[in-house]
Design a protein that fits this description.
Length: about 260
């Protein structure tokens, strides 16, 4: 059964059959429309008792490249003090839905995974990754820190030392490195990612979903600090950085396809 989509909802599609819902990001970057559709779609799935497991994936060669920086640049020009309002309005509910949904969520990382895309992947319970996928934290490249829970989830996945290196140096890394470091759980051939992710989701959908929900709650309860506190601290930090000349210059440089020059102010 396919959940109805209108023409206005084509940034994210949702199809459900046999207890498994496939949520597909149809655009490489997260525009406002994509964020709203993903947020609302995940909230619906969380309350849908006919859906027992969820797959989150992308399309083409991109899983998720993170925030649409064209839209972000426009938001900075309009009012840099409110440019990060998208975090509590969009990103926080999305991450909370993935993390607290009372059913398993499998990430099918079909390709490029960057910025907030890594945050979304790490908010899922199980990650299947294309062997050809490329990763990049990206945040410091535009004068920002982590958000969408990444400051906690990345350190838990790969360790604090590795997380610091990945974010501060912002160097791209491969799917094999992501596997070796513990960021993803298994690799698949590029054309088999969705098939494998959906197969795992089907297996979970046939399993004890009430037990899975308790597993998710227990893992979250053991996390320090709690997710809500992490998200709030990240939002405050991003809002501070959003007012810096470094960040505004770096976003302009990205849009203009030139190298940023950071001056520490």
């Amino acid at each position: 059964m396919a959940i109805d989509q209108t023409a206005a909802e084509e940034s994210v599609t949702i199809e459900a059959a046999d207890g498994v819902a496939i949520v597909t990001l149809r655009t490489p970057a997260l525009s406002r429309a994509a964020k709203e559709q993903l947020r609302d779609g995940l909230e619906r799935l969380a309350g849908d008792d006919t859906v027992r497991a969820v797959v989150l994936t992308g399309s083409g060669k991109v899983f998720c490249a993170g925030q649409d920086l064209g839209e972000h640049a426009a938001a900075l020009q309009a009012d840099p003090r409110s440019a990060f309002g998208t975090l509590p309005v969009h990103y926080h509910p999305i991450v909370a839905s993935l993390t607290t949904m009372p059913k398993p969520v499998v990430a099918g990382i079909n390709g490029t995974c960057a910025g907030a895309g890594i945050s979304l992947a790490l908010a899922c319970d199980i990650r299947v990754c294309s062997s050809a996928a490329k990763f990049a934290t990206a945040f410091t490249g535009i004068g920002l820190t982590m958000d969408s829970g990444l400051s906690a989830t990345l350190a838990r996945a790969v360790g604090a030392a590795r997380a610091s290196e990945l974010v501060m140096l912002a160097e791209p890394f491969t799917a094999q490195q992501a596997l070796d470091w513990g960021l993803v759980g298994r690799l698949a051939e590029p054309g088999d990612v969705l098939t494998e992710a959906a197969g795992i989701a089907a297996r979970l959908a046939a399993g004890p979903t009430l037990a899975y929900a308790e597993v998710k709650r227990a893992i979250q309860a053991a996390a320090q600090p709690p997710l809500a506190q992490t998200l709030a601290a990240e939002h405050a930090a991003q809002a501070r950085l959003g007012l810096t000349a470094d960040h505004q210059m770096a976003v302009e440089a990205f849009v203009a396809r030139r190298r940023p020059e950071f001056r520490g102010r």
